[in-house]
């Protein structure tokens, strides 16, 4: 059995009033056997963030579950670990270390994550040019590197057609203004038979996905009161353009690019929805 790093114990002891120990488990995000904790601080922050939202309590409770249960080594939450696990399963690998070794040895295999090491956080991937990451940083410099990170917009990616075997999106598509363009761009840069693996928050009390905002000629038009989600890049948060409902898989499907929803049980009672789109071969 792989031992839990001593620094896990030390970090937990430093935060023992804010964290509740849950379990020891393998984390596919950072490729370690780690301590999993429930953050009371994060729970309170999410409660404050969602207090004014129109959403029901079941949806808010689901968010609190999927965004918590943190790996003490890399701080990845339950949603991130489930997304990473799904990517590994699709690629036929047991660990993220296996994925890194394949990327480093197979010149025909490539992966694009639309965030900078949000889902996989191991040094071996950072050193591999076929594991490509990006952030949305500046609207007039797409395709350039800014502060060491590639700048891309999901609505107008600068990669050639048929570039990647897998594209990973983690809670992004609720924030894009043009969902059609974004999905078409993902399909374009995927190789035939390639996978789009993603998460979006789904409010199962909604029969149909609800548009909250849209881009008009004069800028953003609000159809409902603005809602902002937390953002790892901007302290101001990021605007929600749509609330996905029970029809999320249908909303994320296109002709020749169907999307399926997998409701996966976490180890701590949470249910995580992961969506898988496959480009026609």
From TrEMBL:
Domain Methyltransferase type: 150-197
Protein name per UniProt: SAM-dependent methyltransferase, putative
GO molecular function terms listed in the Swiss-Prot or TrEMBL record: methyltransferase activity; S-adenosylmethionine-dependent methyltransferase activity
Presence of keyword Cell inner membrane: no
Pfam entry (one): Methyltransf_11
GO biological process: methylation
Origin species: Geobacter sulfurreducens (strain ATCC 51573 / DSM 12127 / PCA)
SUPFAM superfamilies per the UniProt record, alphabetical: S-adenosyl-L-methionine-dependent methyltransferases
Keyword Acyltransferase part of the UniProt annotation: no
InterPro entries: Methyltransf_11 (IPR013216), SAM-dependent_MTases_sf (IPR029063)
Protein keywords: Methyltransferase, Transferase
